[in-house]
Write a structure and sequence with these properties.
Blueprint: E1 2-3, E2 7-8, H1 13-25, E3 30-32, E4 38-39, H2 41-56, E5 62-64, H3 68-76
Parallel strand pairs: 1-3, 2-4, 3-5
Length: 94
Amino acid sequence: MLSLGTSLTNRNAAAMLRDGLARVAQGEAEIDCGALGQVDSAAVAVMLALARAAQARNTALRFVAVPRQLAELATLYGVDGLLGLTPQTAPHRH
C-alpha cells in the first residue's frame, strides 16, 4: 500500500505524483491517506492523476483513511465521486 505521507501540498506534489505513478504502474491498488495532516488543492490533483493512471491500466484504485479536510476539498471541487470517496471518511471499526 502506498502512503501519501504526512503532507501533500504544492511543495511536494510533483515528487509524490512521480512516486505514485511509478507505484500504480507496478500494480499498486491502495493509497493510504491516513497520515496526511497538511493538504491543499495539489493533493486532490495528485489523487486524480493517480486514479486516471490506474483506470488506464484497468485497475480500480482505492483511497483509504482519507482525512476529512481532504475529502471536503474533493467534494468542493466536485471530484469526490471520481475518487470513490464517501461522506464518511473514517474507517468503521466494530
